[in-house]
Design goal:
- The chain has 129 residues and is an alpha/beta fold.
- The chain has a single domain, classed as Nucleotidyltransferase, domain 5 (2-Layer Sandwich), CATH 3.30.420.130.
- Helix content is 22%, strand content 33%.
- The chain has 3 helices and 8 strands.
- The strands form 2 sheets. Strands 1, 2, 3, 4, 5 and 6 form a 6-stranded mixed sheet that branches. A two-stranded antiparallel sheet has the order 7-8.
- Helix 2 links the parallel strand 5 and strand 6.
- The longest helix is centred in the middle third of the chain and has 10 residues.
- It is globular.
Length: 129
């Protein structure tokens, strides 16, 4: 089974904020092994058009740093799962994703604690880890 994963990147690292990211690394994974990777420059900026770009690339999972509610809502509405609030150099994050440990505390953005991270939805923390 082939899976398409997008990593929002900036200078060989996970981009700190998806909303202003310009490039995603699109990884094709088959049976837990990387089979290809391509850098794709995103051409649009609005939540709906950016979400459509990801969907058109066949992305099933987006791994990113912080992401605003408008972007996350529309991306998730297209069936793309989001693993937000990830930080670090891209290659260790990819290895960790392939091993199923990307949500490990080693890759949490600063400010994300044990079981929660501040993602504003009505003023409360969400348990995303």
């Amino acid at each position: 089974m082939t899976q398409t994963i997008a990593f929002a990147i900036w200078k060989d690292r996970i981009s700190p904020v998806f909303d202003s990211s310009q490039v995603v690394l699109v990884l094709q994974v088959e049976n837990g092994e990387e089979i290809s990777r391509t850098n794709v420059t995103l051409k649009t900026h609005t939540p709906s058009s950016r979400a459509r770009e990801l969907a058109d690339l066949g992305v099933q999972v987006l791994i990113c740093g912080a992401i605003s509610l408008p972007f996350s809502n529309v991306i998730e509405s297209l069936g793309i799962n989001i693993i937000p609030f990830v930080a670090g150099d891209i290659n260790p994050v990819i290895r960790s994703f392939l091993q199923g440990t990307v949500q490990n505390s080693d890759f949490r953005m600063p400010g994300c604690r044990r079981k929660s991270c501040r993602r504003f939805r009505g003023g409360r923390n969400l348990n995303i880890w």
